Amino acid sequence: MRGFINPFPIEIPTFKPKLELAVLASGKGSNLERILVDIKSNKLDANIKCLIVNKSDCGAINVAKRYSVPFIIHKHQDYNNREEFDHAILNTIKQYNIEGIVMVGWMRIVTNILLNEFKGRVVNLHPSLLPSFKGNNAISETLKSKVTITGCTVHLVDKEIDSGKIIIQAALPVLANDNDASLLSSVQYYEHEIISLGIALAAKEWRNK
Ligand code: GAR
Q1: Is 132 near ligand 1, meaning CB less than 6 Å away?
Q2: How far is the CA of 125 from the centre of ligand 1 (A)?
Q3: Which residues of the chain have pLDDT under 70?
């Protein structure tokens, strides 16, 4: 393919005991599926103990069903504010003995309720070369800006949006004839390449603390 990844370890770091993770998703679940494929093929030493979604019709649920991952639907509309919503998520996560949270296509702003309990152990995937194009419209903002190189990023989550420590990035060209769908597809090819590496590199840091 036409991009590159940095850092690019030859092997994904290994973990004994395996990482115990919760995944938060709002979308179709292609990154969740890639994580589960990497786990199944022994590339990532992890268990996805549960999936939390905020939409009852999101594709990630079907992925969870196919891989027998327990899933819980917490609709953000059912809560008065972001803190209450995060409390509900935290209560669910606590039932599963989780050491880290992975957000893949989680379209909600996270509060200190979650971040204080999981300091340095919340990982997010973002479809741009951060710090460029933060927020929920990264692909269309990238196209609008006419930049010629973009990418995707796995980073730690802190209280500023899409601003925590960068763990791994992939860079790729924006083609002259790209549209939202084609660029998303190219970016997601690389997201699938880096997501498990990103989780493992982040987890290596929290396990070594
Ligand atoms: C991914 O492209 C991810 O980077 C993006 O949502 C998509 C989810 O795809 N996340 C954000 O835009 C976060 N601001 P998936 O459901 O197929 O994994």
Answers
A1: no
A2: 7
A3: 1
15-207: which CATH number, 3.30.930.10, 3.40.50.170, 3.30.200.20, 3.40.50.970? 3.40.50.170
DSSP state of 37: H
Q: Tell me how crowded residue 29 is: count the other CB atoms within 10 A of its CB.
A: 25
Spans of all domains in the chain:
15-207
Residue ranges in 27-137 assigned as alpha helix (H): 30-40, 59-66, 82-94, 112-117
State if pTM tops 0.85. yes
The packing angle between helices 180-207 and 138-145, to 10°, is 120
Catalytic residue among 74, 76, 87, 126: 126
Calculate how far, in angstroms, residue 183's C-alpha sits from the geometric centre of ligand 1: 13
Q: How far apart are CA 91 and CA 191, in angstroms?
A: 29
Task: Tell whether ligand 1 has an atom less than 6 A from the beta carbon of residue 23.
Answer: no
Report the pLDDT value the prediction gives residue 1, as an integer from 0 to 100.
58
